[in-house]
Amino acid sequence: MKKIFHIPGVSRLLLLGFAFTAFVLASCSKNDDNQFDPPSTAQLIVFNLSPDKPAVGFTLTGNQLGNVALGYTNYSGGYFPIYPGSRELRSFDFNNGATIHTSTETYNDSTYYSAFLIGTAGQYRHVVAEDNYSDVVPVAGKAWVRYINAVTDTSSRPDVTIAGTTEGAVFGTVSDFRQVDAGTVNISITGGSFNASRSLTMAENRIYTLLFVGQPGATDPGLAVQVKFIENGTATN
User: I need a surface site. Which of 19, 163, 174, 210 has the fewest CB within 10 A?
Assistant: First the structure.
């Protein structure tokens, strides 16, 4: 299944680095045909879903992913090509460089991943999920959707309802992609002290990630529990 995603300028620089490495190794090759296959890469997209962190950056094994701060509910806008293997992901305050959280994950080549910074008030974590696009195929009249519950309520199991189907989702849950009827899709998340709902128009064979975010009881509308979303791409054969 072919996917086309926007890759920020920093990704092009990384790719140029891969190309340079390939050139150097190829020039040293002892093979008669002097050919070298460039290294395979994984792909990583990053999100800031922490309501009290208005400017976040990310590094992977010390290399910064992008050169601009991600505001709350913002994401990198595309996937970064990264080397596979066990890598340390670090989120940091873009204004002063202070580390917010670090975690180590294993990334497989030719695989897409999403990394979410979630939490608040000194309790932060990374949720890294494989974006399993191999299961996402075009189906007439259907769209594809998944979600993350980043609402900062760690003590309950709120109900997530998408197109009439309800399930419990503790803090940090990332669902698999699933089919829904294209068109108007009703979405909600309901906990003991909060409720947020939204109706979205989802196009046929488009792929969406729903972001359930916010702080229960927040008086600032920008920090209240709400439903946001991004479009990941289009399901194609």
Answer: 19
How would DSSP label each residue in 14-68?
HHHHHHHHHHHHHHT--STT---PPPP-EEEEEEE--TT-SSEEEEETTEES-SS
Measure the CA–CA gap between 195 and 161, rounded to whole angstroms: 11
Give me 229's structure tokens: 């979303």
- The CA-CA-CA angle for residues 122, 123, 126, to 5°, reads 120
Residues in the chain: 237
Q: What are the two backbone dihedrals, phi and then psi, of residue 122, each rounded to the nearest 5 degrees?
A: 85, -5
- H-helix or E-strand spanning residue 13: helix 9-27
pLDDT tens digits along 113-154: 999 999 999 999 999 999 999 999 999 999 999 999 999 999
Residue 92, helix vs strand vs coil = strand
Model confidence over 160-203: pLDDT tens digits? Answer: 999 999 999 999 999 999 999 999 999 999 999 999 999 999 99
Provide the whole-model pTM: 0.85
